[in-house]
Amino acid sequence: MTDSERSLEFRGGPLASGVPLFAFVTVTLVLVLKGAPQVEGMILGAMIGLSVGMLFARDVGAYCEALFPLMADRTAAVAIVCWLWAGAFSGILADSNLVEAIVWVGWKLGLTGSGFTLAVFICAGLFAVSLGTGLGTVLGFTAVMYPAGVVLGANPAAVMGAIISGAAFGDNLAPVSDTTIVSATTQEADVGGVVRSRLKYVFIAAFLSGILFLIFGGGKSSVDPLVAQELLSGHSNPQGLPMLIPAVIVFVIAFSGLHFLLALTAGILCAAFLGPALGLFPFGDLFLITEEGNISGSMVEGAMGLVPTAVLTLLLVAAIGLMKEGGFLGAMMNWLDKSWTKTVRRTESAIIVLISMANLCVSVNTVALIAVGPLANVLRKRHRIHSYRVANLMDTVSCSFPYILPYSAVVTASSAIQQQVAERYEFVPVMAWSDEAPYIFYGLILFPVMLISVATGFGRKFG
């Protein structure tokens, strides 16, 4: 982008247009070092960054007015709509005893030790594929499957690794996952095609992870058999198994290539009808107006729980847009063209580096995808790399090592739930991050798989 093409001018040139994002990253890193990588703090960091950016704008009025249309970015809108609908759907399933039904199946099949750990990985993966959210899977499974695993003689650290790995698998593969939708949208690709082309990478990592969970997932239970029996009987219930039906409906509709919003709406309607019909929960639990005039319910709580992330996304999209309007992204593209992205392999490796750095700076992988997606789309077009390929590179990386970072949303959430569970059951240990991280096999395996894919050209497409 030349000087005449830039719509905003900054004191300090194009580099200064990156000040809002740089300030946000600085605040985020401080939050991480302080052990508080919360979205609310990141929102404040983004606000600070946009405010500091005014000091560098030559025309403050134009700068401020530019923020509003920049927030109307379609990719951000798609992500926010996905979060709201998926949050409502996951809220219903979370209150439908589906996790307890899965525990019942494992209990009745007599799974113990490493067999139970492997089952946790598979079930968590299927659950996450159904919900489209890794965080929701971690919250639901840790509360029930973690103490059950301790009771059934599994390695506690491996059970937590299996839960987080399953969450990453589902986040990576689900057609209604926010990461899947955003990675596809930023590359101008259809979700169904992206998911189908992703299977080869996902299943390699999942298969190898399953073998490792079977080898290292066993332990020895020190829990009194009577306590174990009481725990399992109190947290297992086959009634919720039919709630797999709406989950399957969502997956089939989205995988077939129809719009994700249609898939989620169909899932919500099916779950909202099926749950009350089976007596799993009253219809009023979905949406309730209390006597005090408050609104609650599983759908409301599920959707509203993701509003802070949506707000953060809008602010960061504006910060990224400023970098484009101020010429920073154009300058970066020129530098990449001259110094590195001269071949397809180098271009793909640059995309890997960019999305990896973005994921290291923020604890929400969807935000990282939104930040890097537009730049990756420009890079791929210069070498005619297929949109599916680049969408897969970004999404698989975002669902690999980011799920292991100690400040990631899923890891911090799992730690909080473990502490709650430990207060209820004295035999349940609270895992340190250093203990469970080596067992998050899916995240550990998927990243090298993608590096090998870039080096060898495995799965590369053009078009």
Overall body shape: globular
The main sheet orders its strands as 1-2
Low-confidence stretches: none
What is the N-to-C order of secondary-structure elements (H for helix, E for strand)? HHHHHHHHHHHHHEEHHHHHHHHH
Helix proportion of residues, in percent? over 70%
Sheet bearing the most strands, described?
A: 2 strands, antiparallel
Description of the structure:
This protein has a domain at 75-306. It is 71% helix and 1% strand. The chain is built from 22 helices and two strands. The protein has helices at residues 19-33, 39-54, 60-71, 74-94, 98-108, 113-131, 134-151, 156-173, 178-186, 191-216, 225-234, 244-255, 260-277, 298-304, 307-325, 328-339, 344-361, 365-382, 387-398, 409-424, 433-436, 441-456; strands at 288-289, 295-296. A two-stranded antiparallel ribbon has the order 1-2. Helix 1 packs antiparallel against helix 2, helix 6 packs antiparallel against helix 10 and helix 18 packs antiparallel against helix 19. The radius of gyration is 23 Å and the shape is globular. The two termini are 25 Å apart.
Keywords:
single chain; 463 residues; mainly alpha; two-stranded antiparallel sheet; globular
